[in-house]
Amino acid sequence: MSIKLGIPAIDDVIDIPTGKVVTYCVDPEVEGDVFLMQTLHKNSEKCKCTLVITNMSPMVARNKFKEFGWNINFPIVDAYSGLVGDLSNEKYVVKDPSNAEELSRIVEDAIKENDLVAINSLSTMIDLCGERIIVEYFKNWGKLATINNSVLVVNFVAWPYDEKIINTVKACSNAIVKIGGIHHRVIIGQYYGLVKVDWTEVRRKSVLFKVVKPGGVRAYIPKILVTGPYNAGKTTFVHAISNKAVSVDRLGTTVALDHGHVEYKGFTIDIFGTPGQERFDPLLKMLGGEAFGVIVVIDSTKPEDFPRAKEMLEKTTKFGLPYVIAANKQDLPNALHPEEIRKRMSLPTNTPVISMSAINREGVYDVLDALLKILLG
């Protein structure tokens, strides 16, 4: 048996085999609880799961899941109520969470009896019981998970602990997902990415994310640019692929940016379409400098417009942006085949040229898939 973490982009890269320890290593300024919660939600229907809570009551934990549209249908290891003198009716109860020996014994019971055990805060355990003793128990929990073919998933907030403690936690983890913030005086974005996997070769890559309620973690791509010659079908494409879209046009011609928002395969994406007329070309450089990728929409029936498409592509990809060609209007009888388009545009052999009909919504998500594949390596 293997599990998925339930996290966009990472699930495309790895499965988690049994007997492994996965650590979400969270920067202190980032709220990382939702990652662990999403992993439990992803797997709770197909395997026996339990959540070890150390810094909130069971009621608060259940309410947090409900905020994301998820219901808890698995037992909780209550390692919190004893701290505040509350009684607990949970299946697993740690009467004195500051007692490392008792805490470890209950966690061991949970590992023996479940396929997936998630600890919501290894850091709280360290703060309550001491760094060295909890890290030693953490080693033992990992060994027990291996013996019992369980998966242990933990949240670890990387407070300024002794460097040896942090390195030991990392060394005891078979996989590490780093969750951090992008700083410029204040946090201007948040990201996650695999930084360690010890059972297979994977390409390390970080992605931005947003947290949506309900919904959970979504990989976030702030800007994909859609460009191409006049009347190639850019606006139709943006509307066809978006959950919601806005255009500004005059007499049926776009005179400002199309803006669409896409929710797709765990991604949340903002798409911007540019007008095709040459007088708007100064926008291409500006928007290209801020974009993450480019979709060039061409009319497959008008090879005379291909030089213009190539010119627009060069203006937007001067920063080395990944791009795909969306060969639109393939539903028309005189549409050129994608390979013929590649030849006439003198495109590299590894450039995706994707057939589509934006007006019929055929192939539009194939275009997006091709770009996402490049963006995610």
Based on the structure given, which CATH architecture of the largest domain is correct? Answer: 3-Layer(aba) Sandwich
Mean pLDDT: 89
Task: Give the % helix.
Answer: 25-40%
| CATH fold field value of the largest domain | Rossmann fold
How many individual helices?
12
CATH superfamily placement of the largest domain: P-loop containing nucleotide triphosphate hydrolases
Which structural class is indicated by helix and strand composition?
alpha/beta
CA(first)-CA(last) distance: 26 Å
Task: Give your account of this protein's structure.
- The protein is elongated.
- Helix 4 runs parallel beside helix 6 (about 130-145) and helix 5 (about 120-130) packs across helix 6.
- The protein contains twelve helices and 20 strands.
- The protein has two domains: about 1-215, P-loop containing nucleotide triphosphate hydrolases (Rossmann fold, 3-Layer(aba) Sandwich); about 220-375, Rossmann fold (3-Layer(aba) Sandwich), CATH 3.40.50.300.
- Helices cover about 30% and strands about 30% of the residues.
- The two termini are about 25 Å apart.
- The protein is of the alpha/beta class and about 375 residues long.
Task: Indicate the topology.
Elements: E1 2-3, E2 16-17, E3 21-26, H1 33-43, E4 49-53, H2 58-67, E5 76-78, H3 81-84, E6 92-93, H4 100-113, E7 116-119, H5 122-129, H6 131-147, E8 151-157, H7 163-171, E9 175-184, E10 186-197, E11 206-212, E12 216-227, H8 234-241, E13 244-246, E14 249-250, E15 253-254, E16 258-264, E17 267-273, H9 281-288, E18 293-299, H10 306-316, E19 323-328, H11 338-345, E20 353-355, H12 364-375
Parallel strand pairs: 3-8, 3-9, 4-5, 4-7, 5-6, 7-8, 12-17, 12-18, 18-19, 19-20
Antiparallel strand pairs: 1-2, 9-10, 10-11, 11-12, 13-16, 14-15, 16-17
Helix pairs in contact: 4-6, 5-6
